[in-house]
Design brief:
The protein has 750 residues and is an alpha/beta fold.
């Protein structure tokens, strides 16, 4: 117990070290030195008391003993002051012994104490203070050597060199050696602290990525011990709110079905059931084996699908259903739907009129990713039931594949008008579907073809509906077949093949358009993608839309971001602090790899958060998805500036100001172009700027083409201006050529 007390009192411990290693080290050294000095004075006091009995010496020694004990008591609260007083005490006592005492041993003790002062000073204070003590000690060295020279005239060489050796060793050598050791320890401690901080930053990044994979995910060792589980996995395995999953084993929660073996989690795919609920089926997929011998496992609840499969297998018409009906919805599949439709057409007379249409549920991949495959299947099942309920019994309904449903509806003359037919189809499509108590908003795309006019067989009508479906958009959800669209679709297909090659070969270039202050000084750029195909520039609105359809936006965005970061790194080294804004359509942020790239870039290059801005465009309804908002909040927390582009149009609205952590607002050119003549647009722009100012947001107006527009927007308080009036977009190479010469100029516009 006493030994433990001494360790806590005199030595370092983890709790006190957290307050600052230098201060704790000095405090520990001070206590040890004080304790040793007190011990020496105490022994001297006892020796004098029993053997010499010198009253004056006893009094002085007792005074020093009390003083040193008091210093030890106050050493924790007043460390610096105590250290100074301790040094003064040593200096005073040493000089008194050196000047007043005639004993040779007293003189040696005084010199040793004085020569030790630089070392003690280095332990308690800084290196500079130690140097000062070294210089001060020249005086006592001078005194003692001079005194020896005056008292003795012969045989002084050995004494002098002994004094010099003692002086150099204690006064200079030891303090410098200890200073070197302390400096090395401090450098190592500082380096370790930096490594620890970087390790914490990387851990936070990987923790964020692990939690946002979108599927229940486990990390376990080869013996099945669960090292980490994300929120979805914890909710799937355990009903308890406490984190009881981590540090348990997979075998505690899942039981394999079939012959999976004892270490079933090492298999690529294995079917299991929950131990707590045997009726819940879980599919375990092993994603990879890490370098440390750990397994990454993805879980999927297949209970609903199992139930449907068992229900189908229990009927006597299983084989017929597998051949002619969709397994999930029990609707006719493509072949059986075409057979039923052609039979209906052949049975009717030649005056039959009707319409074929294909319904595609929009953004279903996002629903599948967010809510899981089970709930996605429930959405499909509920939609099929509601469709059957709302359409007449004469309608033939089928499920083609995935989220596409086909319908053939006999029509009266009134519904041959497209407006009336669109209203009829819209009335039967549910705007919301309830799944497990949650109401989900539904959105659709519909391709429509008329019987006889656009085709006379089910196969031909479905093919033309598919063509019409390709030309549906966020603004035009209902698209009718047009023969003129066929050539356009073919051209778009060819262009899509070329675009895919161009993106893979990194042939999409970056152009920069300056953004200026009201005084005309360039303050930032907007990065614009440009594609030159066969010597002709393809409009960005065209090839970006094609890339989005083909799912190429994440790869395109990754290529452009890496090129931008290379340029910004060069500018950072040249002290060119001009941010560049990069546009995102939303599909990129849904991609886990691209999201992880953005997080990694800013983690490895902290300065990048001030140089790379993210502009969120409104090209698709994906921007309203909760996962997008969650990831934008994560990017904002990592320091990225986020701008809402084209505010007031499409998906960009007041709702975005609530859901997206943006600090920049861009006014669309549609509101700027009528200025300054249209007072209504002036009022709208003025209100938008005031709204942004009240929210602490920076405002950028784009599409400025005249001086009058620029002056008006500056007068209304717009922070940043952009448009052809100031500068047209130009290749980024223009700004980086000749050692970034043009970027260094940043000439004023006015």
């Amino acid at each position: 117990m006493f030994i433990h007390f001494l360790k806590r009192y005199f030595l370092l411990n983890s709790d006190s070290a957290a307050e600052g290693h230098e201060k704790v080290f000095q405090q520990s050294a001070l206590r040890i030195l004080l304790a040793l000095t007190i011990f020496i004075f105490a022994v001297s006091e006892l020796h004098t008391l029993y053997f010499i009995n010198d009253t004056s010496f006893l009094t002085i020694n007792a005074g020093y003993l009390c003083l040193l004990t008091g210093l030890l008591y106050f050493s924790r609260k007043y460390t610096q002051l105590t250290a100074i007083l301790f040094l003064l005490t040593l200096i005073t006592s040493s000089f008194l012994l050196l000047t007043l005492s005639n004993e040779f041993n007293a003189e040696k003790y005084a010199l040793i104490s004085l020569y030790s002062l630089p070392l003690i000073t280095r332990l308690l204070f800084s290196f500079r203070a130690s140097l000062v003590a070294m210089v001060i000690n020249i005086y006592p060295f001078y005194l003692i050597t001079t005194d020896n020279l005056s008292s003795l005239q012969t045989d002084l060489t050995a004494s002098f060199y002994f004094q010099l050796l003692t002086f150099v060793t204690l006064n200079i050598g030891l303090p410098l050696a200890v200073s070197r050791i302390i400096q090395t320890l401090e450098d190592n401690a500082s380096h370790m602290q930096q490594l620890y901080q970087k390790l914490n930053d990387n851990y936070a990044l990987y923790e964020e990525f692990f939690e946002n994979t979108g599927t229940p995910t486990l990390l376990c060792d080869q013996r099945g011990k669960i090292l980490k589980a994300n929120q979805l996995a914890r909710e799937l395995l355990s009903d308890s709110e406490e984190n009881t999953v981590t540090n348990s084993t997979i075998a505690n929660w899942l039981s394999p079905t079939g012959e999976a073996g004892k270490f079933f989690w090492q298999s690529n795919i294995v079917e299991c059931t929950l131990k707590q609920k045997n009726n819940v089926h879980i599919e375990v997929r092993r994603a990879s084996l890490t370098q440390h011998g750990y397994y990454v496992l993805h879980l999927q609840n297949t209970t609903q699908l199992k139930a449907i499969q068992q229900q189908l297998e229990s009927t006597q018409q299983t084989n017929s259903r597998l051949a002619h009906f969709d397994l999930l919805t029990l609707l006719p599949n493509y072949r059986h739907f075409c057979s039923q439709t052609n039979q209906r057409i052949n049975e009717q007379d030649r005056h039959l009129t009707g319409a074929m249409f294909i319904i595609r549920i929009s953004q279903f991949k996002l629903l599948n990713k967010q809510y899981g495959k089970d709930n996605a299947n429930k959405v499909i099942l509920n939609f099929a039931k509601m469709l059957q309920k709302k359409l007449s019994e004469h309608t033939i309904i089928g499920r083609l594949r995935g989220v596409k449903f086909s319908c053939f509806v006999p029509l009266s003359q009134a519904y041959l008008i497209q407006k009336n037919l669109s209203a009829l189809i819209h009335s039967v499509l549910p705007s919301q579907i309830t799944v497990d108590g949650n109401r989900l908003n539904m959105d659709y795309q519909v391709g429509i073809a008329y019987y006889q006019t656009d085709g006379k067989t089910a196969e031909e009508l479905l093919e033309h509906c598919e063509m019409a479906l390709e030309y549906s958009s966020s603004s035009e959800r209902f698209s009718y077949y047009n023969r003129n669209l066929e050539n356009k679709l073919i051209e778009e297909h060819k262009l899509g093949l070329k675009l895919s090659t161009a993106i893979k070969n990194k042939q999409i270039s970056i152009w920069l358009q300056p953004q200026v202050r009201p005084n005309g000084q360039i303050c930032s750029f907007e990065a614009l993608a440009r594609w030159q195909n066969d010597g002709q520039f393809i409009p960005p609105t065209t090839f970006i839309k094609i890339a989005e359809k083909l799912g190429l936006l994440p790869l395109l965005a990754e290529n452009l971001v890496r090129e931008l970061v290379n340029t910004l790194s060069s500018w950072h080294k040249e002290h060119i602090y001009t941010p560049i804004a990069f546009n995102l359509a939303g599909q990129e942020l849904m991609n886990d790899a691209f999201f992880a790239l953005l997080m990694t870039l800013v983690a490895d290059n902290p300065w990048l958060k001030d140089m790379l801005e993210l502009e969120i465009t409104e090209t698709s309804s994906v921007m309203t998805h909760p996962l997008i908002h969650k990831r934008l909040r994560s990017l904002s927390q990592y320091g990225y500036s986020i701008a809402i582009d084209d505010f007031g149009t499409g998906q960009a609205s007041l709702g975005q100001l609530v859901d997206i952590p943006a600090n920049i607002l861009k006014i669309d050119r549609r509101f700027v172009s009528p200025l300054p003549g249209d007072q209504r647009h002036v009022d709208i722009v003025k209100s938008t700027i005031q709204l942004a100012e009240s929210l602490g947001m920076t405002v950028i107006a784009e599409g400025i083409e005249t001086k009058e527009q620029a002056n008006l927007l500056a007068a209304l308080g717009c922070n940043t201006l952009q448009g052809y009036y100031f500068a047209k977009p130009s290749p980024m190479s223009d700004w980086t050529a000749k050692d970034n010469a043009k970027a260094k100029e940043l000439r004023m516009v006015y």
